[in-house]
Amino acid sequence: MSTAPVDPEALRLDDRGLIPVIVQDADNGQVLMFAWANLEAVRRTLAEGRMVYWSRSRQELWRKGDTSGHVQHWEEILVDCDEDVLLARVHQEGAACHTGARSCFFRTLGGA
Q1: Residue whose C-alpha is closest to residue 16's, from 56, 57, 70
Q2: Within the chain, which residues score under 70 in pLDDT?
Q3: What is the pLDDT of residue 2?
Q4: Which residue range is the domain that position 59 belongs to?
Q5: Which residues touch 6 (CB under 8 Å, ≥6 apart)?
Q6: Is 26 inside a domain boundary?
Q7: Looking at residue 4, what is its pLDDT?
Q8: Cα(55)–Cα(37) distance, rounded to whole angstroms?
Q9: How far apart are the C-alpha atoms of 23 and 72, rounded to whole Å?
Q10: Contact at 8 Å (CB) between 108 and 80?
Q11: How many angstroms separate the Cα of 41 from the Cα of each of 35, 64, 112?
Q12: So what's the pLDDT on residue 3?
């Protein structure tokens, strides 16, 4: 098993040029959110030390926290075995969800 860093250029992007990003709290393991990134977002994330994503609705890059102040500073970004999904372990300032919740995953399916 290799633990060598993966070159961002080697990531397997989908047909839209995107890769899914699962975001997890680095301190307690809670899943905070899911987002998409393109290669430029990945490059900027690595360079800036904070999470940058691709907005599919606005068709532009967005830095988590630019408007809300709820910045995500990454500690570690893991690449899955197929190199087509990222897991970002972050230190979250404030809420991760646009609703104001700490995590975007706060409801159960089926109303249970």
Answers
A1: 56
A2: 1-2, 111-112
A3: 57
A4: 15-99
A5: 79, 83
A6: yes
A7: 80
A8: 8
A9: 9
A10: no
A11: 11, 11, 37
A12: 76
pLDDT of 112 reads 57
Burial 17-36 (b: 16+ CB within 10 A, else e): ebbebbbbbbeeeeebbebb
pTM: 0.92
Extract the tokens encoding 49: 């030390």
Domain count of the fold of the chain: 1
What is the reported pLDDT for 108? 93
The answer to whether residue 40 sits within a structural domain is yes
Q: Counting beta carbons within 10 angstroms of the beta carbon of residue 53, is it exposed (0 to 12), middle (13 to 18) or buried (19 or more)?
A: buried
Measuring CA to CA, which residue among 69, 53, 70, 71 is closest to residue 61? 53
CATH code at position 64:
3.10.20.810
DSSP SS3 for 21:
strand
- Domain assignment present for residue 77? The answer is yes
SS3 state of residue 36? strand
The DSSP code sequence of 43-100 is HHHHHHSB-EEEETTTTEEEETTTTTS--EEEEEEEE-TTSS-EEEEEEE-S-SSTTS
| 104 located within any domain | no
